[in-house]
Amino acid sequence: MRAELRHLHVVLAVAAAGSIRRAATDLKIAQPGLTAQIRRIERTFGGQLFVRASNGVVLTELGEHVVLRGQEIVDKFDDLCATARKIADRAHPAAVHLGGVTGALIPQLMSAVREALPGQDITTQMERNGEAVLDHVRTEKLDLAVLAEFARTPPRLPFGVHRRPLLTEPVFVALPADHRLASRGTLDLTDLADERWTMPEESVGGPRSTFQLTCEAAGFTPKFEHFGADLDTALELVRSENTVAGVHPAVREAIGIVVKPLVGNPLHRRLVLVWPENSAVADQIDRVHSGFIAGYHRRVHRSATYSSWWRSGGAEFALDGE
Questions:
Q1: Chain-wide mean pLDDT for the chain?
Q2: Residue 203 belongs to what H/E stretch?
Q3: What's the pLDDT band for 70 if we cut at 50, 70, 90?
Q4: Distance (Å, whole) CA 154 – CA 24
Q5: What pLDDT is recorded for position 101?
Q6: 321: closest CA among 149, 107, 187, 189?
Q7: Residue 128: what pLDDT?
Q8: Where in the chain is the domain with CATH 1.10.10.10?
Q9: The CATH number fitting domain 172-260, selected from 3.10.129.10, 3.40.640.10, 3.40.190.10, 3.40.50.720
Q10: Which helix (H) or strand (E) holds 239?
Q11: Where in the chain is the domain with CATH 3.40.190.10?
């Protein structure tokens, strides 16, 4: 039998585990099968690589030599594969995988990436919550994602995932057009203490706990009636059921609906970019960031209510610390 790279992986696994039994568990093979494989590998190298010890196995002098040189070979082979993939990617770039929570932010992220990487193929994956998106970034299924963070319930960033803030977006409130508060320019959160609430999906108003804590800090407990609605359904419930709902500020006002800013912006979310260590767009984050902000400015001015808020000091709130 001729020694192969896979044999070195087996020897290194046993050496690292210090036990045939533990190595068999790590390699997900039966212990007798691993023992027989080690014996065949030892015959190939011409002598024992391991001897039994009180709590497992230890390396012989030959084993130490094979492990030392074998690790060098495995490392060099891994480096060969990594550098070869980079060269191949330059010649035939793989698609960039983008993601985020369902909503208007993903198309905006796509536009920013297209500006930074003209001609690049792009795929997208949308999820219902930020935890699922972060898991896809952690496992490198996504190269880049846009997420919303809420101050009272910030997400825990997985190891190896990078983050860059974009801006802070206020949460506005949608009311029926004939609501007693509909004629006001802005609302205080306490004005809504006696209202019945429709809670849109997490991507708009944040986790229910965040929303409730903010209302309780203002002195009241919100009366939730409808949960987890998508934005269109939430707006229909506002119109037909005479409820109110937190919505993103650039939402288009539909017939029978008005959208109002809240004094002091007590409800808001921080938009951020997140990406894995080896992201295909890691070296383009500055350009993507700039493109996203520029696109967001255009989005602001497509909404009369949001544009008015933005010009009246809202821009400083949104871009503070950006």
A1: 89
A2: helix 202-205
A3: very high
A4: 40
A5: 84
A6: 149
A7: 78
A8: 5-91
A9: 3.40.190.10
A10: helix 231-241
A11: 96-165+271-303, 172-260
**Cα separation, 285 vs 275, whole angstroms:** 9
Report the Cα 142 to chain-centroid distance in Å: 8
291-297, long-range: CB < 8 A, 24+ apart: 291/111, 291/112, 291/113, 291/115, 291/116, 292/108, 292/109, 292/112, 292/146, 292/166, 293/166, 293/167, 293/319, 293/322, 294/112, 295/108, 295/111, 295/112, 296/108, 296/166, 296/167
Kindly state which CATH superfamily the domain 96-165+271-303 is placed in.
Periplasmic binding protein-like II (3.40.190.10)
**Under 8 Å between Cβ of 201 and 128:** yes
Report the alpha-carbon distance of residue 60 to residue 44 in Å, rounded: 15
pLDDT in tens, 147-179: 988 877 777 888 889 999 999 999 999 999 999
Averaged pLDDT for residues 28-36: 92
Which helix (H) or strand (E) covers residue 115, if one does?
helix 105-116
CATH architecture of 5-91: Orthogonal Bundle (1.10)
Nearest to 1 by CA among 32, 40, 27: 40
Name the nearest CA neighbour of 204 among 238, 245, 237: 245
Quick one: how far is CA 58 from the chain centroid? 43
Would strands 268-276 and 161-170 be described as parallel, antiparallel, or unpaired?
A: antiparallel
Tokens 């999906």 correspond to: 201
Strand partners, 163: 274
- The rounded distance, in Å, linking the Cα atoms of 125 and 97 is 8
